[in-house]
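From the methods appendix. Each design record in this collection lists the tokenized structure first, followed by the designed amino acid sequence. Records were kept in a plain field format so they could be parsed without special tools. The example shown here is representative of the layout used throughout.

RECORD:
FOLD TOKENS (201 positions):
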């Protein structure tokens, strides 16, 4: 099966996040730079993650840059999973300012090949993001005449592999510490977001 990511890709333009907050900040910046480079007059309004750490994140459809996918689980000498984070991702685009090169963000959802945030099942809509206490809820308004949201919302299941971001090891070390102290480990749910504050009311 063809790798989901070109192995020559440099994620986040070479920036190395040490935590999930830095990851969403760098990812938003990387996508915006991609827009500028490709003369797409748009930008990321918000990018949010709700994920938890796991030693076994499935690699059926995506994998770390230096890893391999294993859709059927029958590849010899190929892992069936990698450590990382899994959960949900949300992203909002300001399509109202898109007067440049036409594009469809659905087919480039979350720009996995440049951010390392892999998309899965999902699509158009808020997908319960309005249940979170975020400072951009005013952008969730739905225009019944235009039949669209003020900001174009997309959301999918997501995976992030630690092998792509070796500095993000805090959760992994936390699990090891619990095991050494003979404590039961419970994955922590993390919610982080980036918000372009120029869209503040």
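DESIGN:
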């Amino acid at each position: 099966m063809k790798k989901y990511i070109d192995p020559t890709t440099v994620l986040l333009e070479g920036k190395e996040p040490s935590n999930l907050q830095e990851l969403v900040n760098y990812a938003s910046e990387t996508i915006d730079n991609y827009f500028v480079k490709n003369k797409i007059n748009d930008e990321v309004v918000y990018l949010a993650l709700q994920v938890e750490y796991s030693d076994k994140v499935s690699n059926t459809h995506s994998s770390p840059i230096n890893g391999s996918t294993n859709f059927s689980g029958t590849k010899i000498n190929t892992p069936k999973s990698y450590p990382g984070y899994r959960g949900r991702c949300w992203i909002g685009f300001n399509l109202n300012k898109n007067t440049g090169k036409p594009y469809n963000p659905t087919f480039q959802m979350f720009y996995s090949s440049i951010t390392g945030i892999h998309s899965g099942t999902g699509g158009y809509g808020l997908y319960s993001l309005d249940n979170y206490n975020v400072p951009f809820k005013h952008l969730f308004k739905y225009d019944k005449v235009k039949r669209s949201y003020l900001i174009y919302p997309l959301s999918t299941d997501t995976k992030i592999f630690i092998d792509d971001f070796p500095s993000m090891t805090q959760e992994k070390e936390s699990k090891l510490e619990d095991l050494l102290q003979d404590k039961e480990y419970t994955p922590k749910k993390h919610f982080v977001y980036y918000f372009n504050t120029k869209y503040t009311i």
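APPENDIX NOTE: The CA atoms of residues 117 and 146 lie 31 Å apart.
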